[in-house]
Amino acid sequence: MIEAHSLTRTFGARRRPTVPLAGVSHLFGDGTLTYLLGLNGTGKSTLLRCLSGVLRPDSGTAQVDGRELGRTDAPARHLGMYLDADAFHPGHSGRRHLRWLAAQTGVPAHAVEALLRRTGLEAVADRPVRGYSLGMRQRLGIASTLVGNPRNVILDEPMNGLDVAGVLWLRGLLRAWADEGRCVIVASHDLAEVEATADTVLILEGGVIVARGTVDEVRGPHANLETAFLAHVPRAAGALRVRGAA
């Protein structure tokens, strides 16, 4: 379980700050696959970073399993996160990266081999990460979240760069995590994937949550999640009209 309580975060100069989060509150429950939707710059990544303790909010709190993450024993067992496709040393191999994480977490080194198999990286495990495709780096990032076998998982755009087989694999993995009772939070732009698989959907716009609920609740009277998104985020509809006139 992950809780956001009135999270606010600003960037930039005081006179003209950017406000990606303006008092966001939500309870992300156990056994739930939650997707965050929103245009670029609407606070999805900032929210994930505040929830995971990577970024300190200006005000408000984030709690993982009822406590602030920095005050928990063995944080990696409470939360696994993957927020950046370039968050690896380019000269390290995938196996070395995972072994380093395992050592930091107190996990036996042999557990890394199971992770490599589970994420389909056995064949490239000893190659330098600098030679990995985006899809391979995504798989390595997902493997990284699993090192501590955490009860909560946060992923930022994990399907970018995956081929069809990779998307199907990740879809099943996310579903399995939620069905095991984990809290799973994913930021995505893939509305069709969200509509097919989400338990809960949050739409962010202007630093606040403008819609939340099950897919059916957020879709409401609209034909699909895409048209519902355009209704909740008029700015997106405006951008489409501008492109159509160009």
TrEMBL record:
Alphabetical list of Pfam families matching this protein: ABC_tran
Domain spans labelled ABC transporter: 2-231
Record keywords: ATP-binding, Nucleotide-binding, Transport
TM regions (residue ranges): none
An example molecular function term from Gene Ontology annotations: ATP binding
SMART domains on file: AAA (SM00382)
PANTHER family xref list: ABC TRANSPORTER, ATP-BINDING PROTEIN (PTHR43335:SF4)
Family: Belongs to the ABC transporter superfamily.
Annotated protein name in UniProt: ATP-binding cassette domain-containing protein
